[in-house]
Write a structure and sequence with these properties.
alpha/beta; 16 helices
């Protein structure tokens, strides 16, 4: 039987709200925190984020506040759901506020460019005594908030923490699997955003199903090569947080990364595409870090390399595709 937990979601975007509604429906006491007072005021007044998750009403029982100390005090679980580039600053602000052993579940996806750390490591770097876990998988907020069947994976080095997350989040429509492969789960959920940018570019330029299938498959090969080199388990990359999240992000118009890629395939610059999408496009922030990880671990990442050239060097999508297609001949399976 589930124990009613006291849980705070750090962040107030669409995924934050979807998880808050899910957890409240599971019988937990939920708080949403945002640093932005105007956002808090808007959410308290309208009980809806009409930009990030329109049509989803936040129950009155969910507390919404900008007071960090009161938001995180005496909480069983904190959920880190801010944009990836803010994870370190929010984690740092928790120093001296949260107790040793605080359970923090990271649901933000990305790799910190300056350090090449996954986000759970960023949190642990700031809060050395916290118990940090991750929750990833193919889970668009728009569908989770409607109760559509979804499956994710909760990973923690301590399996008891993963089991706790499974028991807390799992519902009739939200199935949770457990894992101890935190690195693999995070890499899958981060790298797939970069591949989704490429998939969107292919759609925007007018390529077909053959192109999309090849891109997803070879993108998965890059994710697997890098993940295994970094100590991830092969099965994790071919699991929910790897191939599962890759498929949904490359195929769905809910995906901000794919939508941004489509615009770039149509000739928009990176900045123009991000402005048009009007939400955080995490793949843009992970692309450089992913490429640097490839260099660090001596792993070939040709798709990710070409995405970087389109994003940051002004290369056209057409030229990037040509360079991918005319690379040296190779075997599909390498030892």
């Amino acid at each position: 039987m589930k124990k009613n937990m006291n849980i705070t979601i750090l962040g107030a975007g669409g995924w934050s709200i979807a998880l808050a509604v899910l957890l409240e429906g599971n019988g937990h006491n939920v708080t949403i925190w945002s640093k932005l007072q105007n956002e808090v005021d808007m959410l308290n007044e309208k009980r809806e984020n009409s930009v990030s998750l329109p049509g989803v009403i936040i129950p009155e029982s969910i507390n919404i506040t900008s007071n960090l100390e009161s938001a995180v005090k005496d909480k069983d679980i904190l959920v880190m759901a801010t944009a990836s580039r803010f994870v370190r600053s929010v984690a740092s602000s928790l120093k001296g506020i949260v107790p040793d052993g605080q359970i923090i579940v990271n649901v933000s996806k990305g790799i910190e460019e300056a350090t090449l750390m996954t986000l759970s490591k960023v949190i642990s770097d700031e809060l050395t005594n916290a118990q940090v876990a991750v929750l990833y998988g193919p889970s668009h907020a728009e569908e989770v908030s409607k109760g559509l069947p979804t499956a994710c994976v909760a990973a923690a080095e301590n399996i008891e923490i993963a089991n706790l997350i499974q028991n807390t989040f799992m519902s009739r429509s939200f199935r949770i699997y457990t894992s101890t492969d935190v690195t693999g789960v995070e890499l899958g959920g981060s790298l797939k955003n970069v591949i989704a940018l490429a998939a969107g570019m292919a759609d925007g330029i007018g390529f077909g199903d053959n192109s999309k299938a090849a891109l997803i498959t070879r993108g998965l090969a890059e994710m697997k090569r890098l993940g295994v080199a970094m100590g991830a388990h092969h099965d994790t990359i071919t699991g929910l947080s790897g191939i599962g999240d890759l498929i949904v992000t490359c195929a769905s118009m809910h995906s901000r990364n794919r939508r941004a890629g489509i615009l770039m395939g149509k000739g928009y610059t990176m900045d123009e595409a991000m402005k048009e999408v009007n939400m955080v496009v995490e793949g843009v922030y992970s692309a450089k870090a992913a490429l640097e990880l490839g260099k660090k671990y001596n792993v070939s990442l040709p798709i990710i390399e070409q995405v970087n050239k389109v994003l940051f060097e002004g290369k056209t999508v057409e030229d990037a595709v040509v360079d991918l297609m005319i690379r040296d001949k190779t075997s599909e399976i390498t030892n």
